[in-house]
Specification:
Largest sheet: 5 strands, mixed
Helix content: 25-40%
Radius of gyration: 26 Å
Number of strands: 12
Number of helices: 10
Shape: elongated
Distance between the termini: 59 Å
Order of helices and strands: EHEEHHHEHEEEHHEEEHEEHH
Strand content: 15-25%
Length: 288
C-alpha cells in the first residue's frame, strides 16, 4: 500500500490543513462508534495478582498513597455484602470492582493518544457520502511510501474486543513489547465487522490535534457535487507547489455504480473560473 486517502467536507478546517500542510489526530473517545476504542478486560489471573496490578497502575499514574487508598476503599466497600476472602459471591463482586479500576487506569494511560484515520480507496461511494458531505467535498491522496513516520496499520474487523489481564501484567511489570502491541491493537486498530467497507488504516500519535503532514500530499479528488468555486480555490492554492500535486474530477460510470476519475484541465479551469459579479467588479448597485 503506497497511497492512502482522507475524505473531507470542504470548510475552514480542511482548507487550513491544506494551507498549513497539516493533518489532524483525533480524540478516539469522540469517534462516532461508541464500541470503537472500547475494549473489554478478561480476567485470567488470581485475586492477589489482580490487587498487585491495580496498585501498581494507580501508583504509576498518581502516587503510592492514592494506590493504597484505592485498594483499601474497594476492600471496605466489598464488606457491605460479606467477607470477600471466604464468600465466593462477594469475592466476585470485589474482583469486578478491581477489574473496573484496572480498566480506568489503562484508559488513563491511553487517553492522550491521537488517531489519524485514512482509507485505502478514493472511489468508495459510501465514503464520499458519509465523510465528504454527500460528494460535495474532497478526497485527499497521500503518498505514504516516503513517510517520515512509522507505517500505518490496517484496522482489524474480525478480532474481538477482549484484552486478557495477564497481558496487562506482562506490560506493566515486564515492559513486554508484544503485550503492548496487542493492547494497543484492541484500543486503536479493532472495529466491528460491519465497518469493513471503510478499509480503514490508522496512524496513532502520542498526542492529539494538528501536526505537520508526515508524508507527501500527492493528489486531490473533487466530489461529483463539488462546486466549481471550491475546485478552483484548491487548485489555485496547491498548483505549482514544489511537490507535484495532481487534481481529479470524479464521475459515475454510465452502466454501473463505479466511480471514475479524470484529471482536471488546469488551464481550462482557470479560464472558466467564476469571476466577480458586475456589481462587485464595477461598484454597481442593483435596482431594488
Amino acid at each position: 500500500m503506497t497511497k492512502l486517502y482522507k475524505y473531507r467536507s470542504f470548510g475552514v478546517n480542511s482548507l487550513r490543513e491544506l494551507c498549513e500542510s497539516e493533518v489532524y489526530f483525533s480524540d478516539p473517545k469522540k469517534f462516532n462508534d461508541p464500541l470503537d476504542y472500547s475494549p473489554t478486560l478478561i480476567n485470567d489471573i488470581s485475586l492477589n495478582e489482580l490487587e498487585q496490578l491495580c496498585h501498581r497502575m494507580v501508583m504509576n499514574n498518581y502516587d503510592k498513597d492514592r494506590a493504597d487508598r484505592e485498594i483499601h476503599n474497594y476492600r471496605y466497600l466489598s464488606t457491605e455484602y460479606g467477607d470477600y476472602k471466604t464468600d465466593q459471591e462477594v469475592q466476585k463482586y470485589y474482583i469486578r470492582m478491581i477489574v473496573g479500576e484496572v480498566k480506568r487506569q489503562l484508559d488513563h494511560t491511553m487517553k492522550s493518544r491521537g488517531v489519524l484515520s485514512l482509507a485505502s480507496q478514493w472511489n468508495s461511494p459510501l465514503m464520499w457520502s458519509h465523510y465528504a458531505n454527500e460528494h460535495k467535498g474532497i478526497c485527499i491522496e497521500y503518498d505514504i511510501s516516503r513517510a517520515v513516520c512509522e507505517k500505518p496499520n490496517m484496522v482489524d474487523y474480525k478480532g474481538g474486543r477482549g484484552i486478557y489481564i495477564s497481558q496487562i501484567v506482562d506490560l506493566i511489570f515486564n515492559g513486554a513489547e508484544r503485550a503492548k502491541k496487542e493492547i494497543e491493537c484492541k484500543y486503536f486498530y479493532t472495529k466491528a465487522g460491519q465497518w469493513d467497507y471503510e478499509e480503514e488504516w490508522r496512524y496513532v500519535s502520542e498526542s492529539q490535534g494538528s501536526r505537520s503532514v508526515p508524508f507527501h500530499l500527492s493528489g486531490v479528488y473533487f466530489g461529483m457535487r463539488c462546486e466549481i468555486s471550491v475546485v478552483s480555490s484548491i487548485v489555485k492554492l496547491l498548483d505549482g507547489a514544489k511537490s507535484k500535486v495532481s487534481f481529479y474530477h470524479t464521475y459515475a460510470s454510465q452502466d454501473s455504480f463505479d466511480l471514475h476519475r479524470r484529471e482536471v484541465e488546469i488551464e481550462e479551469l482557470m479560464a472558466c473560473t467564476p469571476r466577480p459579479s458586475s456589481a462587485l467588479a464595477f461598484g454597481c448597485i442593483p435596482n431594488k
